[in-house]
Design the sequence.
């Protein structure tokens, strides 16, 4: 298992916002996390990435506790929100900086970015603007592209389709499918259509707990829609 979660809990005050007894994710899986507002998805991702500490329990990445070891940072890339960006840089400067952390030269980075011409839709590169001056959707594009650029073994994206126009949502699905290879992908989404299209496994969370965990098949979208229409 590339990722394992054991007895993971996060408590705020008297509220348990995440409570996951046991979850195992095999290398190469594409997992979608769905659940209503406040279900605990972002809190869970933050614990996977050691951005907040659990009240109890642990997250193991390739068997190592993410709180005690930094090795996982070499093969894990993520974009949860704009806080991951450096807003006083231009996108080019940001990509170069992220690339330099992963031994990519300026030429490697600019070569890599040519694949994103369609996804960026002419609005990101050579715009002469700082990241802070982009729309939220375009900021998301920068964050997602920077995460993919790291060619990670594990990719974690929080609501990647949110704030993107429909054309870009479809382009993102294509990108995620193309990048798949051996990558383990963990994405949260409120878009049931996209998440069932991209993911081979869906985890449904409610009040911090896993309610359902199933392999995606032709009935999954209908099942999810009926669950959420209740
Ligand atoms: N720092 C905090 N202090 C207190 N409560 C918090 C804190 N962070 C999150 N919570 C609470 O934890 C619960 C889970 O929030 P979280 O953001 O993880 O949900 P989510 O599933 O990502 O929701 P959404 O779909 O709206 O993004 C919510 O009730 C939220 O108010």
Sequence:
């Amino acid at each position: 298992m590339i990722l394992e979660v054991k007895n993971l809990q996060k408590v705020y005050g008297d509220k348990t916002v995440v409570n996951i007894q046991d979850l195992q994710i095999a290398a190469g899986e594409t997992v979608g996390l769905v659940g209503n507002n406040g279900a605990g998805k972002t809190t869970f991702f933050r614990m996977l990435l050691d951005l907040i500490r659990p009240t109890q329990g642990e997250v193991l990445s390739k068997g190592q506790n993410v709180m005690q070891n930094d090795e996982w940072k070499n093969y894990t890339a993520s974009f949860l929100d704009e806080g991951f960006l450096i807003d006083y840089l231009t996108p080019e400067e940001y990509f170069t900086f992220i690339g330099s952390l992963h031994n990519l030269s300026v030429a490697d980075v600019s070569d890599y970015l040519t694949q994103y011409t369609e996804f960026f839709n002419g609005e990101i590169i050579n715009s002469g603007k700082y990241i802070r001056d982009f729309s939220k959707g375009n900021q998301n594009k920068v964050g997602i592209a920077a995460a993919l650029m790291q060619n990670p073994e594990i990719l974690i994206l929080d609501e990647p389709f949110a704030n993107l126009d429909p054309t870009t949502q479809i382009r993102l699905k294509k990108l995620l499918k193309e990048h798949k290879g051996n990558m383990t992908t963990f994405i949260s989404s409120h878009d049931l259509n996209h998440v069932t299209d991209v993911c081979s496994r869906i985890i449904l969370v409610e009040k911090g707990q896993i309610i359902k965990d199933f392999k995606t098949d032709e009935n999954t979208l209908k099942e999810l829609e009926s669950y959420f229409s209740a």
